[in-house]
Amino acid sequence: MKRLLLDLLFILVLINLSLSIKAQPFLLDSTFVQVDVLTDSVDIPWEILWGADNYLWITDGPNIKRIDPISGVSSTIYNKPGYNGLGMVLHPNFLVTSEVFIVYDTTNYYNSGMLCELYKYSYSFSGDSLYNETFILSYPHSGEHSGGRLAIASDGKLMLTTADFWFNAPLSDSLKGKILRINLDGTIPSDNPSYFPTKESLKNILAANVYTSLVFCTVVL
């Protein structure tokens, strides 16, 4: 009984703290931080990017959304019914080359899909929409372990994580459990490692023996 009362007290303290944080600024180290709700119009925000256009870009289930960080106004700029958006990255020179790369799971969220697909789109600033969908590649996965993180390295190459290496040997004939390295036009870089020199479809592999990558970052050396 004493433990139950302590647990209830702890929950009440957390609720009170949460309400107080939303109501007023709080001190984080030496900086005052104000917490506000920008929007509640998202369901599954898997990827959240700050774009070069100073908007938030979000993959949200079958929807790709773009949100004004000042007003909170949200627009759905693309919808792919039956798919679940995962990783997304914008072209490093987006204001000039308005290309967007997106990984989708080919089924609804947590619905035992077994295949992910990578696409490239163009973005229309005047129409606030994605168009010119271009398929780049697909890779298998198991259940909800789908990888799908994207980044563009300092050398301009697109990096993509897959998942579930234990279902296959680390260097098996599969894209599971790998990090892929691809040119922005979807072709394979000539300086990639040659794990499978006789198989063109596997020459995009940069590294193997990857479990389920949830974070991906690049470092400029």
Helix-strand layout with pairing:
Elements (H helix, E strand, L loop, with lengths): L1 H22 L2 E3 L2 E3 L11 E6 L5 E5 L2 E5 L6 E6 L4 E7 L8 E7 L9 E10 L4 E12 L9 E3 L5 E4 L16 E5 L22 E4 L13
Antiparallel strand pairs: 1-2, 3-4, 4-5, 5-6, 7-8, 8-9, 9-10, 11-12, 12-13, 13-14
Describe the protein in words.
- It is a single chain.
- The longest helix has 22 residues, at 2-23.
- The strands form four sheets. A four-stranded antiparallel sheet has the order 3-4-5-6, with no helix packed on it.
- The protein is mainly β and 221 residues long.
- It folds into two domains: 1-36; 38-208, TolB, C-terminal domain (Neuraminidase).
- A hairpin with a 5-residue loop joins β3 and β4.
- The chain has one helix spanning 2-23; strands at 26-28, 31-33, 45-50, 56-60, 63-67, 74-79, 84-90, 99-105, 115-124, 129-140, 150-152, 158-161, 178-182, 205-208.
- Mean pLDDT is 78; it is low at 1-22.
Number of domains: 2
Task: Count every beta strand, where a strand is a DSSP E run of 2 or more residues.
Answer: 14
What structural category characterises the helix and strand content? mainly beta
Uncertain segments of ≥5 residues (pLDDT<50)? 1-22
Give the N-terminus to C-terminus distance in angstroms.
Answer: 57 Å
- SSE run: HEEEEEEEEEEEEEE
CATH class of the largest domain: Mainly Beta
Radius of gyration: 21 Å
Q: In the CATH hierarchy, what is the architecture of the largest domain at level 2? A: 6 Propeller
The fraction of residues assigned to DSSP E strands is 35-45%
The level of helicity is: under 10%
Largest sheet: 4 strands, antiparallel
Number of helices: 1
Coarse morphology: globular
Major sheet strand order: 3-4-5-6
User: Which fold does the CATH topology of the largest domain refer to?
Assistant: Neuraminidase
